[in-house]
Amino acid sequence: MTESHLNSPSLELQSLQLCDREGTESADSGIGDVDDLPVPQQIQISNITCDSFKISWEMESRGRERITHYFIDLNKKDSKKENQFKHKDVPTKLVAKAVPLPMTVRGHWFLSPRTEYSIAVQTATKQPDGEYAVSQWSEIIEFCTADYSTVHLMQLLQKAEATAGRMLPFTVFYRNQEQEYFEQPSSSYRSRDAQCCQMLPAVKDDSGSHGSPISGKLEGLFFSCNTEFNTGKPPQDSPYGPFRFQIQADVLINQSTNIYFGDFYCMYTSYHYVILVLAPDGSKGDVFCKEILPALDRSNNRFLSCTEEEDGSLSFRHAQDVILEVIYTEPVELDSGTVTRISGHQLMSQSTVNAKKDPSCKICNISVGR
């Protein structure tokens, strides 16, 4: 293999073969003449997405002409404190034909979004008996895959739209908390400013899709707007506390509010959640969402609509067949609504705090790593 061939434009690797254990034994035990094969050095990882990356490296000229394959050891890094690369425990060992570098490693069956990986590489030559002679392993490189792109979020959006169902009218948004949240300052409630009587935006947790670009980044306040089918009013049960702040819908969503689709997921249950973001036009949250989230038509979407009537008033509707989690990106004054105790139960099993998405659900998963 010549120098010019190694530095040729990237070639996308659509399919990588997994070594079986018998095949990988020769790589780990070093059968063959390893001294004549160059060891990959200065590994570079680039063009990282949620389910792909490009890899390249430098090599000495000695033995290049003998290289027929690359062995790529890709390991999901479970703990940041552990920095030991254990080849025998690596579930994904990939064999690729020696192609021009950089090459693209792509595959939703083994790459997950927003996940830390360790990677090492060997060069190899396939021998007449089918075994491989291999080089020493390269240095270990660590990298993290990216969040879902807008393309992936659009796929989620289409799946969510197919599940949303008919629209029902509503008039208020509501937010449940413990009594202490509304009455006194506490280190347990950092999204509450008791002195200024405000509810303050807090960073979204890791609930929902693993590749969601808003988890751990977007600041906001969670609200609900779902109603009971038989009463048309908010349900009296909540997993988040027995005290409910309730506010008229037009305070949070009006003609100067933008709506964005954030996520679609379930938690091993039959019902599904849709996360929407409400951001006042030009606000910090609005600027953030414009870059990464699909925007929805305020008056015509399948989840949460705000329509101006002939008399100038606003009417609101929400999707019946999904549970909406609405994130409002700005502080909300407590005196703009009311706080009352609900009469129902506190159903902790329905809490979505840091809830993990069901990776096997065919309704809310897309064709990239979960």
UniProtKB/TrEMBL annotation:
PROSITE patterns: FN3. Pfam families: fn3, PHYHIP_C. One of its GO terms (cellular component) is cytoplasm. Residues 39-148 form the Fibronectin type-III domain. Belongs to the PHYHIP family. May play a role in the development of the central system. This is Fibronectin type-III domain-containing protein.
